[in-house]
Amino acid sequence: MVVCGLACWRCRWLLPLLLGLAIIMGIIALAGRGWLESESAPYVQQASLWESCTRGEEDLNWSCESLMDYGWGRAAAATYLVGFVILVICFALAVIAFSVEILRFNFVRGIGGLLFVVAAFQIIGLVIYPVKFTEEIPLTGDNMFSWAYGFGWASTVVVIGCAFFFCCLPNWEDEVLGNIKPTYYYSSPERAPYLN
After folding, report:
1. What's the whole-model pTM score?
2. Which residues are listed as membrane-spanning (predicted)?
């Protein structure tokens, strides 16, 4: 016997939890110094969203230059940061929306629309950064876009997935609220003789 159900009212906290995970990954991306790093030793270059640092092969001290001196650096940081702030607002709205007993599904769809805006801002920032960085900052040795940059993309992917779920959730309003009875499917009449 299999119970068919798309979602349940107890599972409503999964979407805000995923948004919280996206926020954590966004914080790591904003604070991390691993947007760009040297691929192998000697490690002579590393960069964050905010600055680029280099050092000589035998030098232990990093020499850092702010990326906020460049127009593209300010644009990349601003777009990613604006997307992050809207993401935090969406998280707060999602917690409020799922806390009330009578879920406002049009409100949920609005959160999904805002999450698409978040994804657009974050993607713009994540595309501007590597394109302009490699064009305007002299690179030393072999470099790669590293873990903090990857956390930025991971946050964006989670946001896009949540946006689709938030927008589609009102289509299954009765299932989520538990207003319909579950449908039971049986594989064959021989396996369920007590139904006769």
Report:
1. 0.79
2. 12-32, 77-98, 110-131, 151-172
